Amino acid sequence: MTTNIPKQSINQLKKAIESFKINEAIELCTNEAQTRKFLIEPFFHLLNYISNDLIPEYNADFGERVSQKIDYAILLNKKDTILIEAKKYNSRLSDKEAGQLNGYFNNTKNSRIAVLTNGIEYRFYSDVLQPNIIDNKAFFVFNLSNYTEKDLETLIKFDKRYVVVNEIIKTAQECVFTEDFEATLLKELIAPSKDFLKIIHREMNFKTKFTEETQAKMIKMINSALLKSLYEKKVLSEANSNTGGIITTESEIQAYHTIRTLLIQNKKIPSQRIFFKDFKSFFNISIDDNLKKVICKLVFSDSKMKIVIENNEYLLSSVDDVLKYKNELTNRTLTLLE
User: Fold this and answer.
1) Would you say 83 and 60 are in contact if contact means Cβ atoms under 8 Å apart?
2) pLDDT tens track for 300-330
3) What residues have CB less than 8 Å from 311, skipping those under 6 apart?
4) Pairing between strand 294-300 and 305-309?
5) How many domains does the chain have?
6) In angstroms, rounded to a whole number, what is the distance separating the alpha carbons of residues 74 and 283?
7) Are residues 263 and 148 in the same domain?
8) pLDDT in tens, 129-179
């Protein structure tokens, strides 16, 4: 059964992080010990762990092995253990440095999660690919200075009140699977293998022999122009499935992509938070697919096209006319993100 985390808790975490005086804490951090005291421990306090929950200099050994101490450990229900390796503030973190966690991981019973941090960036690791061996990539990274709503929704799962290790491991497995799937698919699209081409060729209605010439022709066809065309068709297909008679037009999709591209030129606007939703008489572009955070409304018909930003209506002679309202769209979006 999945833990139900109230939206209110996520909002409270967001406010707590926003209230955390990061810059003042950073000024006090000239070494690792100060980083622990002024950044790392307060961070876990935000997740409702008290000082007694953070066991410093934890012995990550058992049996007759040589003692190895890790900076912190959190014992959950006297069973599952989260290991935390601290680095000095401003230390550059990378997945290579996570290898240091392997020794602790191997020697600690019931340890499935490890954290590498410099006080600002928190890299969460598990052993999804091979038991008791840290994966070579973090399944989640949280940065106190740069995070999204989605990051907060993941971080709250580590809150003492809601943390369930098995659920987090499942999330980690999904992250690893998704990343591996995307990387493998991208590899095939960049340099299609013979097996990949064979599968496509076999499913084609136009039957020809699978020769080297056929392979070369197919490889040449798999380019960015084709992928863009397929992407737009996929978006249309998804938009028009199970929509109760709502038909999303190519003009609406084109306008959405134009507006989205226009907006993300501003570094304060994250692309992953811009959504669209089609209705029978209009087409919304919003933040987080939230009806209370509508950036603009498109009303396209055979006779006219218009864009509505807040309560202001603007007639369009073509889809490209939305570019005229860059300032209005950007200002509206930034207001909704506050």
Assistant:
1) yes
2) 988 889 999 998 999 999 999 999 999 999 9
3) none
4) antiparallel
5) 2
6) 48
7) no
8) 888 888 888 999 999 998 888 899 999 999 999 999 889 999 899 988 998
